[in-house]
Design a protein that fits this description.
The chain is of the alpha+beta class. 40% of the residues lie in helices and 13% in strands. The strands form three sheets. It has a five-stranded antiparallel beta sheet with strand order 1-2-3-5-4, covered by helices on one side. It comes from Stegastes partitus (bicolor damselfish).
Length: 360
């Protein structure tokens, strides 16, 4: 059961500069008054009533808190405290200051597969721990794979953002159409019952990108991307995979499997020869292979640009919503305008699935 403290967070922490912003709040640096330790304070606006559209549903916040409390692991961001006021909830989280893994890699001139594997091991360790608790992340993507700090020569991986995560109760059948198009599994698009295997598909996509600098199913539009996923349209183009080992390709192929029951689990991934070679020859093949840094840097640059573009788009959308709400007071026929705005950032799969159905 999630425990929310009614005290004022500022009695315990000095709230400092803004580190980031999102749909329903912001993250600020918070310095603990007793120890001087710095944390990240995630301020989340909570809906005041069931009919309100401003802020998050309290049950969603409770679910995220309960999940974070259940997944205490060195490769998962730590939740220290939770405070609640009338209008918002504040999560005191581990301050993850190393930035995104992909940004860290993009700064390098070259990277061997063996070095990339060390990062994959940590991702799989954190994910495997979650899955052992019957918890799926459901939003694995480069933006949610961070490094603990910038100064360590071998920084720890930290999985973050558990807003879409789900705890599976015994015998439960769970469906969700949320996620980011190029990383979601076919069963998400098809609105089929989900399991932790959906995360393993995302791991396959992330590994493919990490090694080649290409996204396996990326199309010219989100609709095309989803069609490519359903059709399993991907390959290992020699122009981009010439320095990739055969074991790495095999690793990806055992994850990008349409039938979720046939995908490797996180535990099986850690035993795969690419991660844990069985012979000296396999180890030698890894040591001679490297990731395609030229295309990887291009992919990461485009990804960062798109993130910036999406943030501007969201800000513009919010401005339009405010204008729409003002005008609706004069014209009752326009009162539904806010719900007509498509939020493809938070629920792209459901919206795009409807479009695909209507066009097929």
């Amino acid at each position: 059961m999630a425990v929310f403290k009614p005290e004022n967070v500022e009695d315990f922490y000095e709230i400092m500069e803004v580190l980031g912003s999102g749909h329903f709040g912001q993250v600020r640096r918070a310095c603990e008054r007793t120890s001087g330790t710095c944390w990240a304070a995630k301020f989340m606006k909570v809906r005041k009533s069931a009919c309100s559209r401003l802020g998050m549903d309290r049950s969603s916040v409770e679910r995220e808190v309960e999940i974070l409390q259940a997944v205490q692991h060195q490769n998962i961001v730590t939740l220290k405290d939770v405070f609640e006021s009338r209008a918002e909830v504040v999560l005191i989280l581990e301050l993850v200051s190393g930035g995104e893994l992909f940004d860290f890699i993009a700064e390098k001139e070259n990277l061997l597969e063996t070095e990339a594997i060390e990062f994959m091991k940590q991702i799989l360790a954190g994910l495997g721990f979650m899955h052992s608790k019957n918890i799926a992340h459901f939003d694995l993507k480069p933006e949610n794979i961070m490094l603990s700090d910038k100064v360590s020569s071998h920084p720890n991986i930290k999985l973050i953002d558990f807003g879409l995560a789900h705890f599976f109760n015994p015998g439960e059948e769970y469906r969700s159409t949320s996620g980011t198009p190029q990383y979601i599994a076919p069963e998400v698009i098809n609105c089929e019952p989900l399991s932790t295997a959906a995360d393993m598909w995302s791991i396959g996509v992330i590994t493919y990108i990490l090694l080649s600098g290409l996204s396996p199913f990326q199309g010219d539009s989100n609709e095309e991307t989803l069609r490519n996923i359903i059709a399993m349209t991907y390959d290992f183009d020699e122009r981009y995979f010439s320095t990739t080992s055969s074991m790495a390709k095999d690793f990806i192929q055992k994850l990008l499997v349409k039938n979720h029951n046939d995908r490797m689990t996180a535990e099986e991934c850690l035993l795969h020869p690419w991660i844990k070679p069985l012979t000296r020859k396999q180890a030698a093949n890894r040591n001679r292979s490297s990731i395609n840094m030229k295309t990887f840097k291009k992919f990461n640059a485009r990804r960062k640009w798109k993130m910036s573009f999406n943030m501007v788009s969201i800000c513009n959308r919010l401005v339009n919503l405010k204008m729409c709400k003002v005008s609706s007071e004069a014209d009752p026929l326009q009162r539904q305008c806010e719900s007509d705005v498509e939020d493809t950032e938070s629920k792209p799969a459901s919206l795009l699935r409807r479009r695909l159905s209507s066009s097929s």
